[in-house]
Specification:
Structural class: alpha+beta
Number of strands: 25
Number of domains: 3
Shape: globular
Helix content: 10-25%
Length: 517
């Protein structure tokens, strides 16, 4: 066994998530830790023993992690000077030639221009760019004992990694050179740990895990060295799924639905721009593609929603969600992609079958083609790397990571697609009661308040009447409407309500302090 311990000296971690520049990365991705070790090696001109130790470390499989939960600090955009600049000059001019050219300036205009360029080198005269500086604030808890520490710790453990004595000694020395992980202000202490606590995040065979983290693989060290020498940013590494294991951490209760909060998010790569009103057609096409492509035929009940005899299953199954540009300034309601919500009770082995539909043998995203008749066709792929659009972030739809787990707070959710009622409400309060029962069906508490409205709470969302009706077995249209729900505790989604919850209707999104975000 080999393990690295990390202590965050400031009590927080500043590192931008690779898929969302306005969200902090937590827990730290194993590849980010490896990059910090590699940077320490390059910047201190480390010896060959250090290099060989890093090459040994990159050859290991993905590590397990012991990390506490965290919440995210509110983003406050800052405007900071750009990186160091220099006075522009012809490529062939040496420093001596440039000095002679500056000394030969005669006109007042030339002198003023030289002064302006010189002052532009000073930080106070540089142009400023917006930077969000997202921060994760981990709960400073010891995973092994449940007691609180003064500073949060993270442990990366390779169960099958036993380094040679020379490698271990080199890594011990290299750890002492690491000053920060992520942003330079995110100060850390790193060491080789002989007795790490039990892991609560373990790698799984697919990317359909509670977390998807970047891990080191292949000839990563050589790639980092080439990018470092060229002054370029490294490319993203391979993604790995991680699942949670039980720990004895004591945190305040947060209510989850029957769906896992780790959504499988796909972005539109090719195809026409479509609006939320086409939800039923797109969800039907996505469901058909998954059913036909599933490795086990016929698909099990947790995928299809039907038992072996063809009867409807009473257990939760795959739900399909439209992801649209809504709830933001200038939102137009266009669909950015789609998502799949999996039931929380699905095993990792079952999820492995699902992962084979949209991942290649090497774990690279595989495009899926959705055929929607007259609406057209889409090509979609798993969204994992560089798409920063808010509508394609899992936390936008699940609320996970937005409130401290130790601070219960009321929450409001509002519909993005209308809730489909089992029957038309005929008396006052019947509609609100129907929605309350829908909440209980997905393991949520009864809301403390329900407001039914045809007009949406989010900008960019169409009026309820513009959505095609969902029909019952007799092909009669069912009543649907938008709604705003209030709960007395934090809710972790996705929140999918009503008779159309598996087909894209009844999709809700959290309201922050009663307003759209």
């Amino acid at each position: 066994m080999f393990s690295l311990g990390i202590r965050y000296l400031n009590g927080w971690a500043m590192a931008t998530h690779p898929t969302n520049r306005e969200m902090a990365e937590w827990p730290p991705h194993p590849d980010r830790v490896f990059m910090a070790l590699a940077a320490a090696h390059f910047e201190t001109e480390g010896d060959e023993d250090e290099r060989h130790a890093l090459e040994w470390l990159q050859s290991l499989p993905a590590p397990a992690l012991a990390a506490t939960e965290a919440y995210y600090r509110d983003i406050v955009t800052s405007y900071v000077p750009v990186n160091d600049t220099e006075i522009s000059r012809p490529k062939n001019d040496s420093s001596e030639v440039l000095a002679k050219r500056l000394a030969g300036l005669n006109s007042v205009a030339e002198l003023k221009e030289a002064k302006r360029k010189g002052l532009s080198l000073m930080p106070e005269h540089r142009s400023r760019q917006a930077r969000p500086f997202p921060v994760a604030i981990p709960q400073p808890m010891d995973n092994a004992t449940g007691s609180y520490r003064t500073t949060p710790h993270v442990y990366l453990t390779w169960d099958n990694g036993v380094p040679a004595p020379i490698h271990r000694q080199s890594l011990v020395s290299l750890c002492t050179k690491v000053v920060s992980i992520g942003h330079s202000a995110s100060l850390v202490q790193v060491w080789v740990e002989s007795s790490p606590p039990p892991a609560n995040l373990i790698p799984v065979e697919n990317v359909v895990g509670k977390h998807r983290l970047r891990v080191t693989s292949g000839d990563r060290l050589k790639h980092l060295e080439l990018k470092y020498r060229a002054g370029l940013r490294p490319a993203s590494s391979r993604w790995q799924g991680y699942a949670e294991v039980a720990t004895n951490r004591k945190v305040a209760h947060q209510t989850h639905t029957v769906f896992d909060s780790s959504l499988l998010i796909f972005r539109r790569v090719e195809g026409p721009r479509l609006a939320l009103e086409t939800t039923l057609q797109i969800m039907q096409a996505l469901r058909s593609t998954v059913m036909k492509s599933f490795p086990v035929q016929p698909p099990p009940a947790w995928v299809s929603g039907h038992a072996a005899d063809g009867s409807p299953s009473r257990l939760p199954h795959l739900a399909f969600l439209p992801l649209a540009h809504v709830g933001r300034r200038y939102a137009d309601g266009d669909l950015l992609g789609v998502a799949i919500a999996v039931p929380r009770e699905a095993s990792q082995g079952e999820l492995g079958h699902l992962g084979r539909i949209f991942l290649g043998e090497e774990g690279e995203p595989r495009r899926l083609r959705l055929l929607m008749g007259r609406v057209g066709a889409w090509e979609i792929e798993l969204c994992d790397t560089d798409d920063l659009r808010i509508g394609l972030q899992s936390s936008t739809w699940t609320n996970e990571g937005t409130v401290p787990s130790t601070e219960p707070a009321a929450g409001q959710w509002a519909t993005v697609t209308p809730i489909v009622f089992d029957r038309y409400p005929k008396s006052p309060g019947e509609g609100e009661e129907t929605i309350a029962i829908s909440c209980e069906r997905i393991a949520l508490p009864r809301p403390t308040g329900v407001v039914i409205c045809s007009s949406p709470a989010f900008s960019g969302v169409p009026h309820a009447s513009r959505f095609p009706p969902l029909t019952d077995k007799k092909q009669k249209p069912r009543y649907h409407s938008h709604a705003v729900l209030t709960f007395d505790r934090p809710i972790i989604g996705p929140v999918l309500l009503g008779a159309g919850r598996y087909r894209g209707y009844g999709l809700c999104r959290p309201l922050r302090n009663g307003v759209e975000q």
